[in-house]
Amino acid sequence: MDFGSINPVLLVASVMVSATPILLAAIGETVVERSGVLNLGVEGMMITGAVVGFAVAVNTGDPASGFAAAALASAVLSLTFGVLTQIFLSNQVATGLGLTLVGLGLSSLIGKPYEGMKSPTLPKLDLGPLSDLPVVGRMLFSHDIMVYLALGIVALVWMFLKFTRAGLILRAAGENHDAAHALGYHVVRVRLMAIFFGGACAGLGGAYLSLVRVPQWTEGMTAGAGWIALAIVVFASWRPWRVLVGAYLFGGVTVLQLNLQAAGADVPVALLSASPYLVTILVLVIISARGAHAAPGSLGRPFHASQ
Amino acid sequence: MGHHLLSLRGLTKAYPGVVANDDVSFDVAEGEIHALLGENGAGKSTLVKAIYGLVTPDAGEMEFAGRRFAPAEPSDARRAGVAMVFQHFSLFNALSVAENVALGMETPPRTRDLARRIRDVSEEYGLPLDPYRTVGTLSAGERQRVEIVRCLLQEPRLLIMDEPTSVLTPQEVEILFATLRQLREEGRSILYISHKLDEIRALCDTATILRLGRRVATCTPAERSSRELAEMMVGASFATPEPRGAAPGEIALEVAGLSLPAPGAFGTPLREVGFDLRKGEVLGIGGVAGNGQDELLAALSGERPAPRGTIWLSGRDISRLGPMARRDSGLLSGPEERLGHAAAPEMSLTENAVLTAARRERLVRGGFIDWDAAERFARRIVDRFDVRTPGTDTAARALSGGNLQKYVIGREILQRPEVLVVNQPTWGVDAAAAAAIRQALLDLAAKGTAILVISQDLDELMQISDRFAALNEGRLSPARPVAELTLERIGLMMGGAHDMEVAHAEA
User: Main location per UniProt (chain A) (predicted)?
Assistant: First the structure.
């Protein structure tokens, strides 16, 4: 066993990269669930984003257009979920699972011609003197723009929910949709917008997988990242900063256990592979054990403006 | 009293199968408290929703302050100067008082300024509130204050209040009335919805009475007796339950030192609850909602097992027994929530009869349901308690609240319980059905059954109980004979006005 082969600088740097897809998907789903909608289709939206982003980036040669197309495609896909659940009042759990299945099937159909191809990837951002800092520069300030965009989205979501009136209305719709309706707010409209945003974020996360993290297209390449994002939202008790902690923790342990495997650690491989899931759930449970942070009151309940 | 502030002319609103408002016309003058009186389903709520812009009427016109008034949305109504306090609070438990208030305003100021204004207004009207508290931690009376303060901050000319006192202690009702009278002095109008006649006679200047969607009369309530008003409301005279003077027998149910932790985040723990219940006696348990009523019922019915040695039925410790075993030994119960707790909404009346009566009425033979016997039993309940239903194979959900309530209470009564525990037996039930249910409970007691009635309706408890006790934050006061009680003492037993005074006197 050779722990010396693990370079801490590279480790931290790769944690940020490996956590970004999950972070993007999870922060989007946080907004969706705070508005009172349970969208279990994150996995399907992510993989749709992955394939559309890859295809567009390969054809245009521009990764930025790939990300934009991925966000749009997943957001449109999520709107089908929105229309079905919010307007036709279909069951959210069943429709969300259906969305995942549709996304997986659709992506393998679209992705068939692109298997084995290489895509243009995002350049590392040059942050000038920051990137040149010793150690810290390599760890934190030499990533591509999406890593920082993901962090920025977390901060924006936090500010939106905490300080803006629109954020207050969104939380109100998630907390008690009947009361929000009685006060004259448009619950369905608010929720459709939240679902759209959640879809766009999941699409960005998926595209990050296929364009930066891997970077190529393989069928089923999200491999459960969407489900992890869903779990992180719950265990983070629907709070943006805790979502960040959860996603980075998961990414961190994933990278660490891969390094340990490579270093030939004397631990069963199965246990190492399971460790990211165990550690993330354990830590977030401990965080949220203090104080009662219940789910949004109307989460997953159908809303119909009767009478 | 000056001009008309609000005029309704020929307002009509129909839903599929039911006309909620049929050609309703009346006027609310400036600076008056106008009562809207009627039974459940008389169309009061639909009418005020039309005024508040939540419902668009099919026909008819409204005029507000001399102008045509047809709000398409609540925000239109709010801009015109109409504010509304809802019956089921339109509050958000997980948000703070200030956030809740901000949600009800068109253009809220910054949080800090808003907090100061909330303090100012709440003190001016004697309704103290902390703007930063989370609403989920407030008592029912305090939550209502949040609603009222939210309305007052908009300087409304017309304040609509939908059944505001149903969750308040008598002291809190007094505070509310003082506030409303102060608002009237300031020239504001109040549209006050209630079916509590004494309140309306004490508070309101004018009353409009609705029955089955139509306006039947407008009168001055102080000049009418409660009985007259009730008969206008119901459209017929109805029997009030007859009091009875049977001497209670031996102890049927004994509860001592019953403590249970709260079942969930917003539940209430039971603290050292103790009482005796004798055969042929009705013990009434009052208290403001959320002080342990549901938890007490769950502990007595066996849904949550209690610590050993705390619940005794005719001298036998049943604390650890489940609901089935308690039913077998004669303790039956009827919870508050009709749909989903007392009855399974999608199942037929016959199936619902089997759910609680399977063993006592022998509706199951060798593991198979005897559907003929079940049908007969369900039919007996329907006949005996005048349940209006097309048949016993109708789904429970399809019945109106009052009819289903008669059915679920009747189902327990016909199983000849030794002890019957009911929570809110007449909640949301019209006056005639409520009277029938109360009479049935009294008849059952006269045959020797011990009855525990948990209710938030004090008039009901005074009418049918022999003794009265109050739940306050999970503690049960000692039971006192009803004959010795005054309204003020009852209020103190219920905990007085929450946070309004230090004096908790004797309880």
Answer: membrane
The predicted complex's ipTM stands at: 0.80
Number of domains in chain B: 2
B residues 33-92 lying closer than 8 A (beta carbon) to A: 46, 49, 53-55, 73-75, 78, 86, 88-92
Task: Pick the more confident residue, A27 or B90.
Answer: A27
Distance separating alpha carbons of residues B447 and A19, to the nearest angstrom: 71
Q: Indicate whether B482 and B375 sit together in one domain.
A: yes
Task: Pick the last residue of a domain from B177, B199, B234.
Answer: B234
Contact B63, B7 (CB under 8 A): yes
Nearest residue, CB atoms, A184 vs list B46, B74, B89: B74
Q: Are residues B210 and B260 in the same domain?
A: no
B500 lies in a domain? no
On whether residue B507 sits in a domain, the answer given is no
Question: Does the structure show a pLDDT above 90 at A235?
Answer: no
- Report H helices in A83-224: 92-111, 129-132, 136-140, 145-163, 165-175, 177-182, 187-208
pTM score:
0.74
d(CA A155, CA A24): 12
pLDDT digits 0-9 by tens, A62-96 = 999 999 999 999 999 999 999 999 999 999 999 99
* Res. B239: pLDDT tops 70: no
Range(s) of the domain holding residue B41: 4-234
Query: Does the beta carbon of B108 lie under 8 angstroms from any beta carbon of chain A?
Result: yes
Same domain as B228, residue B275: no
Percent of chain B at pLDDT above 90?
36
Contacts of residue B46 in chain A, CB cutoff 8 Å?
307
- Using the beta-carbon criterion (under 8 Å), do B92 and A178 form an inter-chain contact? no
DSSP string, A101-121: HHHHHHHHHHHGGGTT-----
Residues B60 and B200 in one domain: yes
Q: Do B291 and B408 share a domain, yes or no?
A: yes
Task: Write out pLDDT tens, residues A149-168.
Answer: 999 999 999 999 999 999 99
Give Cα separations from B323 to A240, B300, B306, B339, B340 (angstroms): 44, 9, 12, 19, 16
In this predicted model, what pLDDT tens digit does every residue of B416-469 receive, in sequence order? 999 999 998 887 777 778 888 899 999 999 999 999 999 888 888 888 999 999
B225-229, B370-374, B500-504: range with lowest mean pLDDT: B500-504
Query: Is B78's CB within 8 Å of A184's CB?
Result: yes
CA of B225 vs chain A CAs: smallest distance (Å): 34
pLDDT attached to residue B19: 79
Cβ–Cβ gap A179/B91 under 8 Å: yes
CB contacts of B99 in chain A (<8 Å) are 168
Asked whether residue A307 carries a pLDDT value surpassing 60, the answer given is no
Determine whether the interchain pair B86/A184 forms a contact, defined as Cβ–Cβ distance below 8 Å. no
The strand ranges marked E within B163-250 are: 189-194, 206-211, 214-219
Does B243 map to a domain?
no
Verify that B196 and B278 share a domain, yes or no: no
| Chain A contact for B143 (CB, 8 A cutoff) | no
In a domain, B99, yes or no: yes
Record the tokens describing residue A86, joined without a space.
């919010």
Nearest to A19 by CA among A276, A267, A289: A276
Q: What is the pLDDT of residue A23?
A: 96
Domain boundary among B234, B265, B280: B234
Tens-digit pLDDT profile for residues B109-157: 888 899 999 998 888 887 888 899 988 888 777 888 888 888 888 889 9
Confidence of residue A306 (pLDDT cuts 50, 70, 90): low
- Asked if B92 lies within 8 A of A296 by C-beta distance, the reply is no
Residues of chain A with C-beta less than 8 angstroms from the C-beta of B108: 165
The enclosing domain of B35 has a CATH number of 3.40.50.300
Do B92 and B165 fall within a single domain? Answer: yes
Most B CBs within 10 A among A162, A165, A175, A186, hence the mutation to make, goes to A175
Same domain (yes/no): B111, B228: yes
Q: What is the pLDDT of residue B502?
A: 36
Mutate which of B21, B103, B114, B151 to disrupt the A interface (most A C-beta within 10 Å)?
B103
CB B402 within 8 A of CB B428: yes
- The position carrying tokens 């008056």 is B32
